[in-house]
Amino acid sequence: MTSEKLIQTSHYCQKVSIQKNNNSKEITEEILAEETPVAIVYNGLSHVVMMASPCDLEDFAKGFSITEGIIKNLSDIYSIEVLKKDNGIEINVEISTEKFTHLKEIRRNLTGRTGCGLCGAESLDQVLKIPKIRKNKTKFSSICVLKALKKFSNQQKIQKKTGATHASGLFDSEGNLVILKEDVGRHNALDKLIGAASNLKISNNYFVITSSRASYEMVQKVAYMNLKLLVAISAPTALAKRLADKIDMTLIGFARNNRYNCYTHPEQVIG
Q1: pLDDT tens sequence across 69-103
Q2: DSSP class of residue 236?
Q3: How, if at all, do strands 177-183 and 166-171 pair?
Q4: Is residue 169 part of a domain?
Q5: Is 119 a residue of the active site?
Q6: I want to staple 190 with a disulfide (CB 3.0 to 4.6 A). Which of 41, 94, 168, 208 is the partner?
Q7: Domain of 60, in residue numbers
Q8: Are residues 210 and 89 in the same domain?
Q9: pLDDT the model gives residue 5
Q10: What is residue 69's three-state secondary structure?
């Protein structure tokens, strides 16, 4: 199998011809979001393959490595190389010997087991782990949250073209957009955001908006950023609510049309 360096990762959509269901049999053009297999390989060992949008893949590798507990700091990553293959994309991540040894131990525990619904997890404690988050009395402005929601919708460029992607956005305390990442997968979009934000100094009064529902994993991932507010366009799950409540994170759902529901710690939202 031949491979070449993926120099341009902006090929995230494709223009196609479609026939509309009307009497005139009209032929028109439409833009579809690309979805491709992306393999993440650590020190030559293939670890996972996921379907993702082929953009911001270095950020994706960083964020995934952080939220999966493969690395603790970016200094544990020595290099990232994105390669285009005939049947997908491969991200080669070179990590420290210590972290690679730990990763191999996790993989070894999977050998011989069947029915693994959550790969890499041996127990419920490993899946439902409580993130460590610093306690503080951060307050958020309701006006700024609503301001951020408007910007969030306007900045989703791939979604506007295709209608097929999720997004995660990082906003400062004034509701200004800092970073926005898109992907066909909601978890992927948040991992890309976390990877892109890993080099920045982020204050506790920053917050994240996601275009999806707020699942337990989404709350976990935001906690890795040590942030205290997650805003979701759709509903949260009950488990996400319980986790957010436990770690003093404000969880907002159904945030749209200048309104939202606050599920945990409403005292942290003022104005």
Answers
A1: 999 999 999 999 999 999 999 999 999 999 999 99
A2: B
A3: antiparallel
A4: yes
A5: no
A6: 168
A7: 3-124
A8: no
A9: 40
A10: coil
